[in-house]
Structure formats: C-alpha cells, structure tokens
Amino acid sequence: MTDRMRWLALFVLCLGDLMIVLDSTIVNVALPSIRADLGFSQTSLAWVVNAYLLTFGGFLLLGGRLGDLFGHRRLFLAGISLFTVASLACGLANSQRLLEGARAVQGLGGAVVSAVAFSLIMFLFTEPADRAKAMGVFGFVMAGGGSIGVLLGGVLTNWLDWHWIFLVNLPIGVAVIALSLRLLPSEHVAPENRRVDVAGAVTVTAALMLAVYAVVNGNHNGWTSGQTLGLLGGAVVLLALFLTIESRIESPLVPLGLFRLRSVATANIVGVLWAAAMFAWFFISALYLQLVLGYSPLKVGLAFLPANVIMGAFSLGLSAKIVMRFGIKRPLATGLLVAAVGLVLFARAPVGGSFVTDVLPSMILLGIGAGMAFNPMLLAAMSEVAPEESGLASGVVNTAFMMGGALGLAVLASLAASRTDSLVSSGHGHLSALNGGYHVALLVGAAFALAAATVGAVFLRSGAPEEAPALAAEAH
Description:
It is a single chain. The protein has helices at 3-38, 46-70, 72-92, 96-124, 128-159, 164-167, 169-183, 198-216, 218-221, 226-248, 262-292, 297-326, 329-346, 355-382, 390-425, 430-459, 468-475. By secondary structure, it is mainly α. The protein folds into three domains: 1-135 and 145-194, MFS general substrate transporter like domains (Growth Hormone, Chain: A); 198-248; 258-476, MFS general substrate transporter like domains (Growth Hormone, Chain: A), CATH 1.20.1250.20. The chain starts with a helix and ends with a helix.
C-alpha cells in the first residue's frame, strides 16, 4: 500500500469513528424535542441515551475479539453498515420502543467500529513516527467530535427537526462503506484460538440492562416493590454468572487477572464514577437549558461549545504536556476535583439564570476538568500492563466508562424526577420543581466526581513524570 493510500485510509477510519462520537453527544440537545414528540416521561427519556450506551459498552470488548478472529476490515464494514441502517430506523422512528430498539442496534454497530478502528490504524502505520502522527490525527477527530455533535444537534433540531440528527448519518455511512472497500487493507491472520466469549458478553450486558431498567423505573414501581427487587436480584445473579464464566473459560472476554493490577482496578473505578458525573452533566444541563431557561436547541449547542473546545484543546496536546510535567496521579485528581466544583456551581443555577453568570463558569470548569482528567485515566489503566495487553486494558476502562455513564444517568434521572415530584406535591411551581430536581442530580453528580478524585488520589501510584512520554506514545 502506498503512503498516500495509507493516509486516505486513516481519513476513512476517522470519518467512520466520527459518526460514532457524534451520536454520543448529538442526541442530548434534541432530548426535549424527542420527549415532546414521542411522549417520553422524564425518567424513560434516559433510555434514548442508555439504550445506545449499554450495547456500546457491552459489546466493545467482544467486537475487538471478533475483529481478531474474522478480520478487522470485515468487522469495520459490518459495524458501519449496521450503524447506518439503525440510524435510518432512528430517523424514521414514530414510537418510543422503535427509537429505543434502533438506538440499541446503533450502539452494537458503534461498538464494533470503535473496537476495530484502532487495530486497523496500528496495522496501517508500523513506523513509530507515522503511528504517533496518525493517532494524533485520530485523537483530534475524536475530541472534536463532541463539539461538532452538540452544535450539529442544535442546528439540525432547530432548523429541521430531531429526526435529522440520525438521518444525517446516512450519506456519511454510505461514503465510508464505499471508501472502505477500496482503501482498507483486507489482510488477516486468524489466531490459533478462535473461541469467542459470547456467553460473557451476553451475561454482563443483560445484567447491566436489568439493573438500569430497575433504577429507571424505581420511582414509578416503588423501590421495595417485587418488580424492582426482582430485577436487581436478577442483575446480581447474571453478574455473578459472568464472573464465574470469566474465571473458568480459556479465552475470557475480560481476563479477571487484569484487575489484580492496582492501576487497572483503580482506573476502572475512577472511570465508572467519573462517567456517571459526566453523562449527568450532558443530560441534566441540556434539559435545564431548554426546559427551565427556554433555550432553543441551537442555543443549547452553542452553550456547550466552550466546554467542548476546551476539552479538544487538552486532547490536542495540552493534557500530554501536563502529564509529562506532573505524572498521571496529580492531573487526574485535580481535573476531577475541578469538574466537581463545576457541577456544584451548576447546581446553584436559578430558574431565571443568566448564561454569563450561571452557565458559562460551570461549562469552563467542566471543560478544564474533563480535558485534564480523561487522558491520565486511560494512561493509568495501561501503566502496569504489558505492551501486548495495552489494547485490552484500554478497552476494559472504556467499557467501564460507558457502563458507569449508563447506570449513573439512570440513578440521577430517577433522583431528579423524585425530587421534582416531591416539590410539586409541596406546592412549588412547575419550573421551580423541575429545577429543584436538576439541582439534586447535579449535586450527586458532583459527589461522584469528588469520589473519583479521591479514589485516584489515594490509590494511584504517583509515577515519575519522566515515564509519561512513553505511556502517552503507547496510548496514542
């Protein structure tokens, strides 16, 4: 393959993964419009996000394993095709169940694409300098995707309607498929062990889906009701079954021995807590801006832009410089602490809030905190593993991040709804009650971020700053 073809192939991979990143943020701005159009309740609305996150996180590791077995190019094409068809179904959805089901299929396709894109880049670029440059480009696209998603979601929802946040994927998906067939390498050497841990992927995904379903419906059904306790009990049983499977089979989806490494275990706990806080920020603040302050979808997109630009700047190199200067532990803990302060500030935003005084400071702090903490979290997950296991360690912490986001969002949406109902019952006005619910959710999200900062500060080894460049190069 010529040098020009390799860089064109990188462009295709970036474009494909950009679709996946877009769909994790583009939907947040459109949530109030989707809620009004399809009749979602405040708590069930979380499933528009959670259906995607659960299948994405649940099948991220399995997608990578299938790529190893059957070819990364083949799996990339299958994932993009599945994602594109599911996007069409989302765009045409006229019921809650259809949208939720299509979002789940989107998550499955997205998991496969994300899992194999990194492996394809590693195959295309073998020289260290070229590989570092390629991963820098890939990282820039992924970081910028969040900003583009929020803004694009606002533009499409404001000027057209929410259906177009999904339909916009169709021409991109078709172009990526056509270009992939021409540009991506098809060489593949299958490993000797071709076993796939389907049982592990199914049990852990089912366990988390039962748990989230129980939490989302806890307020409505009652937290001590037979249904809620039965679902939570079923989730615990399935999780125990997953751990049993992983401990006994020859080729587990998640080798449990990996968690004996202190940095890996710590990074995964931090990832779960931080994701719960971050997804609450995107979900709750978007609802506050639209339903309490009355922002249009476009204004919501613009309101998120400062935070996303700051996160993009950190991912482009600022975070790496901080890690090289101070190591992993201090930037991680400091970034999470800054984010916690940002969430606390957001939790004091009043009904008649001003963007400059009540929204912008929080967005800036959250952008700085997230930008500072995310790369150190991934580096911590890989700092003690062998080089040949760095991809697995990265995949495990990304899975924990997605699952933490899904479960945390379910808990916080339920807390917000419960507080809102309580305030309405005690005579508060509609907007005041809504805002009171959002305040509780944001404060609990801040507690999650603070807990993540504490875990990182207490349990991570300091690590010499001079070790960071090698880790950063390995991660990117």
